[in-house]
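Input record (Table S2, row 406):
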Amino acid sequence: MIKPKILILGAGYGGLMTAINLQKRLRSRDAEITLVNKNSYHYETTWLHEASAGNLKPEQVRYEIKDVLHKKIIFKQATVEKIDIHYKSVQTNQGELYYDYLVVALGFEGETFGIDGLDKYTFGITNVNDARKIRDHIHTQFAEWASQELFEKDDALLTIVVGGAGFTGIEFIGELANKVPELCREYDVPREKVRIICVEAAPSILPMFSETLVNYAVDVLTDKGIEFSVGTPVVQATKEGVKIKKGPNQFDFIKAGTVVWAAGVRGPRVVEESDLPSRRARVAVEEDLSVPGYQHIFMVGDCAFLVNRETERPYPPTAQIAVQQANTVARNLVALVKGKETKPFIPDLKGTVCSLGGSDAISNAFGKEITGKTAYIMKKVIDNRALYLIGGLGLVLKKGKLNPFK
Ligand code: FAD
Ligand code: NAD
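Output record (nicotinamide-adenine-dinucleotide complex):
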């Protein structure tokens, strides 16, 4: 009997979780399963802000994909270049692959909204190498300032602008606030010379949280020396810094040695450039997460666009959703292989936690508003759980956040 070919693109939360699920549910003789990823390793995207600030080593946020897969899954390290849904083929930099069933889980890219200069002059927090670049750049700026003569010191080298006060921007700022005292000691920089400015277009930071939680976050971060500029969208980035809009025909320029862009995400370009029907590189899917008209193609995670019927708003692109979608897609693939009906995606949303650096966080998980150490411990549990779901206790012991004080 010819085995159906299942091809999974991307080994982030969605793709790797789909593969792990399938390796538990299908036998080798049921299907040939191939997982494709551009790197040999998976990284914890949800920890990248910590690596970007230099508070976690890049090695801790990544692990080899082969170490968590059984032999029945074929792993291929390759970059996906084109998806051809008519010929059921995928072009990669390592050759062409064919499928009977396809899972697209290629994640996200930073959204720049076409704003002038952002692509060229800002850093994004999207993968391990981006995190390394941000960490190293900040060190270089401090070292440059330290090596300048007293009369020529350019304090803008020590100014870090973060564009966007959503989860990514705030979590990164929290980490940075904790790192700065260490950087100041290392490079003999007076703390008051360092400016970290969070620029947000909307009238408030973290719009998904209540006013009480937002005020708590602002107080914690302001106490650590963070400056906020809200209601002031970034409209341009240059080599020297960013231009912000303060009102009709009113602009300001912030000189900064480092600009980190964390103002939202879109799907990956490769999805947009394929013949999948996409908008901002995300594909609107059916309730069972298949592509309309293509019951054998599934979108998972940040590439998928689905509206929550209860709230009539799209599900946000989060790891929580990606993992739950992976479970649904794996179950649906097993059903299709066995000639059964697919089932709809029914998420179990538990709320969210936003870390503020150190051992502080805010959370609205399980319908309760929590702040401080308890919320922070909750975040650690979530981080370790993600490892456990993929690689069990062994992976938690190897890569987990096991120190409750750090
Ligand atoms: P990803 O996890 O991004 O995986 C995509 C995979 O595809 C990667 O392995 C990538 O290397 C690979 N890939 C990409 N392009 C190609 C290609 N062309 N060829 C081959 N392989 C390719 N969500 C939460 O729920 N909780 C959090 O606490 C949280 N924290 C976050 C913190 C930060 C700093 C960021 C940036 C995001 C955070 N998110 C969080 C959002 C969450 O990380 C994403 O929603 C999640 O990673 C999406 O999973 P995914 O599988 O769709 O994509
Ligand atoms: P986001 O869309 O949640 O926030 C982006 C912010 O940037 C918004 O507040 C927006 O108003 C602002 N912005 C947009 N254009 C701007 C401009 N020109 N100038 C200044 N500000 C501008 O995006 P994100 O924070 O990158 O998060 C992406 C996804 O990842 C979200 O779904 C988020 O929920 C998820 N995430 C979750 C966690 C967590 O659960 N702890 C952490 C990080 C990310």
